[in-house]
Write a sequence for this structure.
């Protein structure tokens, strides 16, 4: 994984704002980085805001202030019909206006980091936001329709509110996967696809890179140059990354975030013949219909008929719901299947890492995912696994038994902090103190 050229350049504190835009939510965090360099562990954000556009009672805004003086949280439902741009703009203005303010004005923000899901072939490193960069991100919108347009909207909003004094930095989820060899990225279609850039890009790279870095720090008895990891990012979206010596060598998502694991509401990999069959039926679905079904009506939600939220599915299983049980069984089978594939790509395994909402909080999923790999010498400590969410939540944990030849780690996702670090490095590293 890329390490900073110099983390000791800035002597005074700076405020870094991070924008993480998605289809159903928009998350914002403000980090105050005290000089002279970046801390080893992620600090608590000074301020964080979130809009959940699809909350049950209507779009909901949550803001948390976390200062040395106090910590407070405020929630409210937005007026019906609130435009996304208006909602995000007002959320950002709460940084310096109203009872949740922590800044004197927009001029106190030094830089703004934007998480961007798809960078395509050309946007492969963190970079300053320019009109050309924004245009390229927008061109890639058909490959990540739920994310790239929202990221561009966030860039436009911050430029209006903060102007040129706070430079924007785009950090790409696809960038970490740029080291995957051609054999693992090229689809076995006509070579014209290769020439058109139709290949596997991979996603969740910001999260996978963070987990790989933290795992290397935890596993001090392993050579970081040869350390073999499988990072399991299991949230509403799910993907695995096979990482050797800090570099990604394989992943489960592909040309779009739809490939790979079964997810909350996404199908993951299926036989393309199924789609041809459906499209060939008289009165069959349109392309738009298929896109909606594969993205929004499949996965845990589609099979269970309950929810894309694993907690609701598990609750239904406890009540005897057989469809919910089937959904979980398929979810686990496909997770283990892909872990096996990633292990083959690595030629072995030193540690299995779980992160994101399901990965960090579901002892059931971790247990089921680990069980088939006992033949590798993987031994889960059941007590530690069950207690992850109860003791010291939010900390990096080793939940394997002392005699396990493969370590099992739970590492909290810190995507916004990872973006803030890259933003700081590109904007401030190398400057005189």
């Amino acid at each position: 994984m890329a390490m900073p050229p110099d983390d000791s350049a800035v002597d005074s504190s700076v405020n870094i704002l991070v924008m993480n835009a998605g289809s159903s939510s928009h998350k914002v965090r403000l980090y105050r980085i005290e000089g002279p360099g970046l801390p080893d562990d992620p600090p608590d954000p000074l301020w964080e805001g979130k809009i959940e556009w699809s909350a049950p009672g209507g779009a909901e805004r949550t803001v948390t202030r976390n200062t040395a003086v106090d910590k407070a949280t405020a929630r409210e439902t937005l007026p019906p019909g609130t435009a996304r741009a208006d909602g995000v703009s007002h959320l950002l203005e709460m940084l310096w206006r109203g009872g949740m303010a922590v800044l004197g004005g927009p001029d106190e923000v030094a830089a703004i980091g934007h998480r961007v899901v798809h960078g395509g072939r050309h946007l492969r490193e963190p970079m300053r936001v320019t009109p050309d960069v924004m245009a390229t991100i927008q061109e890639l919108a058909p490959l990540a329709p739920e994310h790239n347009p929202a990221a561009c909207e966030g860039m436009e909003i911050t430029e209006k509110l903060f102007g040129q004094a706070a430079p924007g930095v785009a950090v790409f989820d696809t960038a970490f996967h740029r080291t995957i060899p051609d054999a693992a990225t090229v689809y076995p279609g006509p070579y014209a696809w290769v020439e058109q850039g139709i290949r596997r890009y991979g996603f969740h790279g910001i999260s996978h890179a963070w987990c790989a870095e933290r795992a290397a720090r935890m596993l001090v008895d392993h050579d970081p140059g040869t350390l073999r990891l499988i990072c399991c990012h299991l949230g509403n979206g799910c993907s695995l990354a096979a990482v050797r010596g800090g570099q990604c060598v394989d992943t489960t998502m592909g040309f779009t975030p739809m490939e790979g694991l079964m997810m909350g509401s996404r199908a993951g990999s299926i036989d393309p013949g199924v789609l041809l069959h459906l499209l060939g039926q008289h009165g069959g679905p349109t392309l738009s219909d298929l896109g909606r079904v594969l993205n929004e009506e499949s996965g845990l939600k589609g099979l269970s008929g309950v929810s894309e939220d694993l907690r609701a599915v598990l609750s239904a299983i406890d009540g005897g719901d057989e469809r919910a049980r089937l959904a979980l069984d398929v979810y686990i089978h496909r997770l283990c299947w892909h872990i096996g594939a990633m292990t083959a790509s690595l030629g072995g395994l030193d540690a299995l890492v779980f992160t994101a909402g399901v990965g960090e909080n579901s002892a059931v999923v971790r247990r089921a995912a680990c069980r088939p790999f006992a033949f590798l010498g993987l031994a889960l400590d059941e007590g530690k696994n069950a207690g992850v969410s109860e003791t010291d939540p939010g900390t990096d944990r080793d939940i394997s038994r002392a005699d396990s030849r493969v370590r099992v780690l739970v590492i909290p996702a810190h995507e916004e902090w990872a973006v803030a670090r890259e933003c700081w490095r590109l904007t401030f590293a190398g400057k005189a103190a």
Notes: Residues 242 and 344 are 9 Å apart (CA to CA). The two ends are 26 Å apart (CA to CA).
